[in-house]
Amino acid sequence: MTRIILLLAAIFIAVAASLPSDGSHPLRPWWNAPHSSARVVGGFEVDVKEIPFQVSLSSGYGHFCGGSLLNERWVLTAGHCARTGEHGLQVRIGSSRHASGGKLIKVRAAHQHPQYNGATIDYDFTLLELEETVTFTDSCRPVELPKQDEPIQDGTCLQVSGWGNTQNANESSSVLRATNVPAVSLEECNEAYSDVGTVTSRMVCAGYREGGKDACQGDSGGPLVDGNKLVGVVSWGYGCAVPGYPGVYSRVAAVRDWVKEVSGV
């Protein structure tokens, strides 16, 4: 198994000082974005009004992760996107473009899940507390949340969105993109990744056996939804849309009580 992905991770961390440096998972987390960052693989352009909870997380180096608006003051993203005590983070809300439009709001505090493990990418969650209260519009509304331990039926059609790599040089990188992928059982996903790591009960997998549609670099922290319900957070995987390797997402229902404890949502 090639380890080129680890070199990409090292380069990105050196450039983007605001990103966490403790991740050592053998697979590439979605935040290892190349310089020519594009978007979701095998998807379609979408207006933010159709995904009004989608936000872009940026630092002085621009967009590097996605996130989901929970209410007027809180955003949920991936643990590897931001850690407790981190400064200089901003969230762009209400825009289909990660570099313009909508409103840019500073992050007051980042609350990484206390059990986040950079080596296994387990408990890959961070809650972002915003400095300003968000005013809801057609382009900016909160996502619904599941109940604690609420299950996801295998095969359920889910939607993932973001500004990550499309693996297609002909596709513009300026507009939000989404794709639909079916939920994959934990057993099947663990079998797929048996040679490289463990898929835990804090994770949910989605994708086609033949590949072709997936989240990719730069989509990290973004939403995986069942309708308007946030069931997953873009986390990690082997390659992008590679046959036999579904995308792995952090399962929101596994930490629903923690989300409420920290944010009140």
Written account of the structure:
With 265 residues, the protein is mostly beta strands. The chain is 10% helix and 29% strand. The protein is built from three helices and 14 strands. A six-stranded antiparallel beta barrel has the order 9-10-11-14-13-12. The protein has a six-stranded antiparallel β-barrel with strand order 3-4-5-8-7-6. The chain is globular and about 45 Å long. The relative contact order is 0.22. Residues 1-26 and 30-39 have low confidence and may be disordered.
Can I get a quick summary?
By secondary structure, the protein is mainly β. It has helices at 4-15, 186-192, 256-263, and strands spanning 28-29, 44-45, 54-59, 62-69, 74-77, 90-93, 103-112, 126-130, 157-162, 177-184, 203-206, 223-226, 229-237, 247-251.
The helix content, as a percent range, equals: 10-25%
Question: What is the overall shape?
Answer: globular
**Average pLDDT, to the nearest integer?**
85
Q: H/E order of the elements?
A: HEEEEEEEEEEHEEEEH
Separation, N- and C-terminal Cα atoms: 41 Å
Main traits of this protein?
single chain, 265 residues, 3 helices, mainly beta
How would you summarize the topology of this molecule?
Layout: H1 4-15, E1 28-29, E2 44-45, E3 54-59, E4 62-69, E5 74-77, E6 90-93, E7 103-112, E8 126-130, E9 157-162, E10 177-184, H2 186-192, E11 203-206, E12 223-226, E13 229-237, E14 247-251, H3 256-263
Antiparallel strand pairs: 1-13, 2-10, 3-4, 3-6, 4-5, 5-8, 6-7, 7-8, 9-10, 9-12, 10-11, 11-14, 12-13, 13-14
